[in-house]
Amino acid sequence: MDWQTTADAVPAGIVSEARAQALQGRAPATGAWREGDPVGDRRFVGIGDVALDAGGVLPGVRIAYETWGTLSPERDNAVLVLHALTGDSHVVGPAGPGHPSAGWWPGVVGPGLAIDTDRHFVVAPNVLGGCQGSTGPASLAPDGLEWGTRFPFLTIRDQVRAQVAFARAIGIQRFAAIVGGSMGAMHVLEWAVMAPEAVERIAVLAAPAAATADQVALNSVQIEAIRTDPSFRGGDYYDAPDGEGPTRGLSLARRMAMLNYRTAAELNLRFERSWQSDLDPLGGGGRFAVESYLDFHGNKFTRRFDANSYLVLTEAMNSHDVGRGRGGVAAALAGIRAKSLVLGIDSDRYFTLEGQEEIAAGLRHSVHGDRPVLVHSEYGHDAFLIEHEAVGDALRRLLAA
To answer: Are 103 and 40 spatial neighbours (Cβ–Cβ below 8 Å)?
Structure first.
């Protein structure tokens, strides 16, 4: 599928009328949720100014979030679920007005599931710097224009600072558990260090204690793919005269990322050397099926994400180091008091198992000992989103501890 195809058009009602019309011929300049779009299941809360590690503050921050279940009278059953880089607050629920895609963890969160919404009050915010309702580059700045390139550099700690303020704003002082995978797991670790009094249990799924040079390198080529798209316009593409945004660059970044998230074994097994049409790629004009697969997902991604947000969040992930300014990783981990679960995936080639082994060995209150829970999967990094039974079993043991 070519990047310009409309075969994956967003259903009517998902976006505002003007943007829906734009989608009829091409992807929108941004897939961000914008003012005037359907709210869907989102709620919003203002948390004021957020102090930043780089200095200064981000003013007038708003957090978008969703909830499931009922908060107990004692307020002791809240579970905070933190999403990965390309996730959002829509953890559970169908696609529909305001939500371009269905919830990303339907086999883990819900009635009777591992994170049981009959027992727990589940809260999921869209991360600061994101593009699905929380303050981010596509949001309007105090001057009424999109932040764009003026949006400040964020660290994982800045984002957790906003999450702590968000929790206080909705009246939750302590979480029974904080759960996250990938980028969300980086936030989980910071919560346990920055606000230990607010965390009873933590689940760190498929993330390292600090971003490695290899991981930063993999991220850097995705960043460059976006920045070198002529339609990026230095990041100020929201009101481009031709309506074009950096969809080529963002789609390419997504395709690169998927090669990190999945495995060679899975791709080889699923696609072999098959091609997509009657034209043999070796004869010219045809395409291998795996190429069309990556193009489809890249194109789909541009309709629900914002290129500037992708840059901000990826650079925040590069900043991740739980030991920074705390005497190193080992010292930071040793100070965590929460009951802990660390989960790794044997086929993860993005955040390899060594990272989870370091975390598990450094925690003093792991419910599974000094080794991570190991998930065997052909799906690589994405297994924490796919292997619902294995991940759910581990979470049940944590929540029962």
So the answer is: no
d(C-alpha 232, C-alpha 309), whole Å: 13
How is residue 241 written in tokens? 């005269």
Every domain of the chain with CATH number 1.10.1740.110 lies at 17-30+216-315
Task: Tell me how many helices (H) and strands (E) the chain has.
Answer: 12, 10
Token pair recorded at residue 65: 């979030």
**CATH 3.40.50.1820 describes domain 43-210+325-400:** yes
Instruction: pLDDT band for 241, please (50, 70, 90 cuts).
Output: confident
Q: In 10 A of CB 348, how many CB atoms?
A: 25
207 — phi, psi (to 5°)?
-150, 155
* pLDDT single digits (tens) 3-28: 222 222 223 333 333 344 344 456 78
How big is the CA angle at 96 (ends 93 and 100), to the nearest 5 degrees?
A: 90
Tell me the fold of 17-30+216-315.
Rna Polymerase Sigma Factor; Chain: A (1.10.1740)
The pTM of the full predicted model, rounded to 2 decimals, is 0.91
pLDDT at 11: 31
Catalytic residue ranges: 182, 348, 381
* Exposure on the CB side of residue 255, measured as CA atoms within 13 A: 20
